[in-house]
Amino acid sequence: DIQMTQSPSSLSASVGDRVTITCRASQGIRNDLGWYQQKPGKAPKRLIYAASSLQSGVPSRFSGSGSGTEFTLTISSLQPEDFATYYCLQHNSYLWTFGQGTKVEIK
Amino acid sequence: QVTLKESGPALVKPTQTLTLTCTFSGFSLSTSGMRASWIRQPPGKALEWLARIDWDDDKFYSTSLKTRLTISKDTSKNQVVLTMTNMDPVDTATYYCALGRRGFDYWGQGTLVTVSS
Fold first, then answer.
1. DSSP string, B59-109
2. Alpha-carbon Rg of chain A, whole angstroms?
3. What's the distance, Cα to Cα, between the start and end of chain B in Å?
4. Taking the C-alpha atoms of A83, A60, A89 and B58 in order, what is their torsion angle to the nearest 10 degrees?
5. Average of per-residue pLDDT across B16-37
6. Which of B101, B107, B112 to mutate to test the interface with A (most CBs of A within 10 A)?
7. Is the pLDDT of residue A106 over 90?
């Protein structure tokens, strides 16, 4: 199975900060990766697909990069509504796996 | 507009079998490339992918749970069903269904299942 190692597990940041979250795959997954945002009590919502493509309707302050084994989600200027938990998901192999999540909290 | 909704018991006893149904509208799971998955999330913990069924009826299961899971679909009813045997309190979680071609474009609202005697 492909393991996804996500870091950090949590971070504290202020409104306006630039935030970076990383996912590393245990083997190459091309660009078969998405990033999801989840707010308490809600279903996740996809922000990025194919590692770097912005989902329709998602603000442009969100961006994704990477290919192969290392991937990054960047929020260029953190907004109050961005405080949430973020997950990566690989769908390269037959069995899909999530990262462990990154909780973004208010500093 | 695509909608998905999970249904099933809110409470099950240890050792029982859980059956969850995802009823969807706005798409067809017989469309080439479409895939439907079940995902769960224990309270305060991370998302865990459980199982997937594809448009061509291929089925895939989490390695750690594959002996307990069965996924199926009824295209005529627009439903995907997950059964999980031998339920344990550690299986207490919100269970989601989700679909897409590559990853998850759409999610249901989730259904909380508590395992307790």
1. EEE-TTTTTTEEEEEEGGGTEEEEEE-S--GGG-EEEEEEEESSS-SEE--
2. 13
3. 40
4. 130
5. 95
6. B107
7. no
